[in-house]
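tool_call predict_complex ligand=magnesium ion
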Amino acid sequence: MKSNSIAVYLSESFGLGSEKISMKPIGSGHINSTMLLTAPKKSLVVQKLNTEVFPEPDMLVKNARLIERHLTKKRQLGEYDLAIIRHVPTVENNYLVDCDNGVWRALEFIGGSYSEDVVLNTSQAQTAANAFGQFAVALEDFDAKQLHHVIPDFHNLAMRAEKLKAVVAKDPQQRLASCQADVDFCFAQFGLIDELKALTGIVPVRPCHNDTKINNMLFCNTSNDAKAVIDLDTCMPGYWLYDFGDMVRTFCSPEQEDSTDLANVCVREEIFAAVVKGYVEPLKDLITEQEKQSFWLGTKVMTFMIGLRFLTDYIDGDHYFSIKHANHNLERAQNQFALYRDILAKKTTLKAILRDV
Ligand code: ADP
Ligand code: MG
Ligand code: MG
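tool_result ok
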């Protein structure tokens, strides 16, 4: 289908008419394909959902709408200040539209906002971490058991490790030879799995965002304050250490996660300190001592696990993460392992920062 006919079809489906409309890509998420659909009446964000990643799009929308409703209540009570991204129904009151061999949804567009792929300074890091903290607190009394597990075992390192082992044994694309050193490195880190297991029953399971990347935050164009937490697709029960660790992973490096300038990939300690400060402040009345201590494990686990997943997907033939060139997932994996190595190298400093909050 031509992009113009897709735009017209979506625009009519979501009640924007077919006159004077345009559609262009927005943002740089690499799961769904996200477009801004502009009509004279209003603009909507439309997303073609990646059904390989989310085989049950109706469950995805159901989850997100439960969270929308909860956050809306919190806002009415004055307990949540950020904007809420609502799903927009079609003229026939559905939330999903079949178009161009895929499934689409529409979200309210938050104008006057921007997102970042790399954190520019400590104030931005602290602002975003604080907003993710507010989001976590707002979800504390949400019954996460209502959520469908859209991706079972999403942050289950043991399961991710098994997947890597399986794909290494199969080597379906004959790519192993090009990444044997990375695979060996991965296998040598599996002690992390036992460290995580040791937390069972000690650290509380809570509703988590599970994808606290810096580009899942919208900032206000004028004030640079946080405007909204977005991308609620992987909200599921988990540990706060996951959300903390994913912020460290995506906020602290001065390089994007697919940069090949590995010499420049590192944890910026002042950004790390800003993430800790920003995130812990809203949580302070809820967080347990063990949970605070678990943030060091979160710091290590999340960067390592995403690296492992990029590597697994590379060996498997790039089914999960969309790629722009042949070795893209391998480059992403090597980038994340460089960051993970720097985390280990800075253990004393980072642990001291965590201890001092
Ligand atoms: P993905 O799941 O692929 O990461 P996201 O939902 O995070 O997709 O959207 C990708 C990008 O699109 C975001 O980083 C942001 O820049 C932009 N975006 C998404 N939703 C909105 C919205 N409601 N308003 C404004 N921009 C948005
Ligand atoms: Mg996203
Ligand atoms: Mg997403």
